[in-house]
Amino acid sequence: MADLFKNVPVIKYEGAGSDNPFAFKYYNPDEMIDGKPMRDHLRFAMAYWHTLVALGADQFGVGTMDRPWNALSNPMDVAKMRVEAAFEIMNKLSIDYFCFHDRDVAPEADTLSETNKNLDVIVELLKQGMKDNNKKLLWGTASLFGNKRYMHGGATSCNADVFAFAAAQVKKAMEVTNYLGGEGYVFWGGREGYDTLLNTDMGLELDNLARFFHMAIDYADEIGFKVPFYIEPKPKEPTKHQYDFDTATVCAFLQKYNLMDRFKMNIETNHATLATHDVQHELRVARINGLFGSVDANQGDMLIGWDTDQFPTDIYTTTKVMYEVIMAGGFTTGGLNFDAKPRRASSDTDDIFIAHIAGIDAFAKGFKIARRLIEDGVFENFIADRYSSYTTGIGKDIVEGKVGFKELEAYTLKMGEVTTNKSGRQEYLETLLNKYMFE
Ligand code: XUL
Ligand code: CO
To answer: Which of 172, 169, 166 is nearest to 223 (CA)?
Structure first.
């Protein structure tokens, strides 16, 4: 293992009573739960872009974070050192997976073929590192937003040459993801959206986005890349209106363009809140539509109106996420990708580790609470009882499609006024949730 983070030990589980900032309090990776180790329930992934690339720059100031590779000037040397750092970080944190954009791992050159060569060099290093360190790729993706050519979008650009470039880039990103044994492939919209309808042909842009996805499916089939494609919804930022606004919008899009079979969702907590939903809502919409896939685990700040990508530390939220994950049958190809970065002022290199420990422990704790809530049927039993009128009598007839408006009118005339409504007991249920949170 490389030794770029000498001050940081391998992080071990020490239990809830530990005061050691470099220890897990709740995450015990090899603890067996329901027949499999905790690490396989949670399937944590490190996001290459935040952890190896971002340095804390924002619109108002430059980066604040010193990293071992900052001293290097040749972009390929930087990329190579980041590979070493990536495996050291994952090893020290017992993180089994990572996720990347093509441009996170290798620098873009003057031509696509030179860029692809850079990528191939780094992909070989990643392949070897994955083998040596027993690490896996949760998903890969292509950055169709950083380069200025994508100023109008990629697949939804007004410029057909840009559409072509984006296709070439995604083709290569799918190839390398496949080569590295990636278990999924993500499409986050990037700049696929609009800032003003005064210059936008929305219908054509959406048709083109669907054409792009069909081309991706055709090519994946051609190269035997059989993994799910995930769409990661986000309502705004960078564009005013992103086409993949939220899960329901994406679901309608996938249905309209006959893409339901091959796509699932990658739901991100902070994107959900930007859409004025919470992440549980987004996961539930995905689940009931057969689109549950993977999670970008982070949190936003309710008082800041953009995507702050903070490490997830709110255990109510991690509990609700894991509740939905368990109810969906657990992760299969997906996992919990920390699409999160330490705050700009959390500038020490150690903060990379402290931040991941915080997120990992918050999810481990949330997972255990969610499991008990489900095991005890706390909400599910209440819900079953709440809807029990649909299991007998007229409710059963409704569900089974045996009655229409005429029969229901006859039933109602006979019934008179409704006298059977029971309390929804929200506060009681919130108290039960608190009991499980804190006992
Ligand atoms: C942007 C975002 C992306 C995707 C991958 O808000 O979440 O990093 O996760 O492109
Ligand atoms: Co994300």
So the answer is: 172
Averaged pLDDT, 66-87: 97
With beta carbons less than 8 A apart as the criterion, state whether 24 and 95 touch. Answer: no
Structure tokens at 156: 């939804």
**373-401 pLDDT per residue, tens:** 999 999 999 999 999 999 999 999 999 99
- Residue 244 CA to ligand 1 center (angstroms) comes to 12
Distance 47 CA to ligand 1 centre (A): 9
Q: What is the pLDDT of residues 259-271, one digit of tens each?
A: 999 999 999 999 9
Looking at ligand 1, which atom is closest to the CA of residue 296? 9
> How many CA atoms within 13 Å lie on the side-chain side of 332?
10
The single-letter code of the amino acid at 197 is: L
Report which DSSP code applies to 43. Answer: -
| Six-digit token string for 306 | 């953009």
Q: Quick check: pTM over 0.90?
A: yes
Residues with catalytic roles? 101, 104
Residue 2 pLDDT exceeds 90 = no
- In DSSP terms, 32 is beta-bridged to 37
CA distance 174 to 202: 27
Q: How many CA atoms lie within 13 A of 360 on its CB side?
A: 30
**Ligand 1 binding site (Cβ under 6 Å of any ligand atom):** 49, 101, 141, 186, 188, 232, 234, 268, 296, 307, 339
317 has pLDDT over 80: yes
SS3 (DSSP) at 46: strand
Q: Distances in Å between the alpha carbon of 283 and those of 57, 122, 196, 329, 336? A: 31, 34, 30, 13, 13
State the Cα–Cα distance between residues 13 and 377, nearest whole angstrom. Answer: 29
